[in-house]
Amino acid sequence: GSNVLRMSSGIQIKTKTAAQKNKTCSPESQPKPSDKLNPKTIEPFGAYSQPPSAFAATYARGGIPCRLVHGSVKHKLQWDCLPETVPFDPLLITLAQGLRETKHPYTFVSKEGFKELLLVEGAAEKVIPLLPRLIPVLKAALAHADDEVFERGLDALVQLSAVVGPSLNDHLKLLLTNLLKRLMDKKSREKVTVALQKLEQYGGKVS
């Protein structure tokens, strides 16, 4: 009898993922094949026993001036005021801390907010003074065991490099051990290789 059960539960799982696919939500909400193998997804209560992180607490009390707007096709961020007018200190650092979040909507808000802040005019002048504080925060994301957190940290680092160029070079050595460690990992190797090429391209040849 157990075989029949296993079959039917397998079928239910399949239809569920198909339904989610049709909804075209953001990629984060679709189960990836790796999730099934990932023991972390099986601990439903593990995540809730921790106190809210600094980012979650700040978000809850309205300290992040942007929020998630659920779109029918694609989520987007809505800012309470123009991103150009937002003080980068401390918001950019808070958003970078949020890259370590593993729960929705924090994952989306921090990743997208970080990216959009870096796109505002004059971002470079605002970001460069923050690098000494920003880099340790990104390092924590790059050192995180969760692959998605690592990838968000990696994307953020490349976005940062595109904005500040060679100013990042002095700080990169703090991050290289984390990047090289992931370079040894088959899953991340390609992403890290591409990121390193971009960092070199934006930073010029590191003297």
Basic shape: globular
- Following the backbone from N to C, one meets helices and strands in this order, namely HHHEEHHHHHHH
Task: Give me the CATH fold name.
Answer: Leucine-rich Repeat Variant
Cα radius of gyration in angstroms = 19 Å
Task: State the end-to-end CA separation.
Answer: 68 Å
Report the structural category.
mainly alpha
Q: Work out the number of β strands.
A: 2
Polypeptide structure, described:
It is a single chain. By secondary structure, the protein is mainly α. The chain has one domain: Leucine-rich Repeat Variant. The protein has a two-stranded antiparallel sheet. Helix 4 packs across helix 5 and helix 8 packs parallel to helix 10. It is globular, with a radius of gyration of 19 Å. It starts with a helix and ends with a helix. It comes from Cnemophilus loriae. This is PACRL protein.
Quick synopsis:
With 207 residues, the chain is mainly alpha-helical. The chain has helices spanning 2-23, 33-37, 54-60, 88-98, 106-118, 123-127, 131-142, 147-164, 169-183, 186-203, and strands at 66-69, 76-79.
What are the salient characteristics of this protein?
207 residues; disordered N terminus; single chain; Leucine-rich Repeat Variant; ARM-type_fold; Parkin_co-regulated_protein; two-stranded antiparallel sheet; 10 helices; mainly alpha; ARM-like; PACRL protein
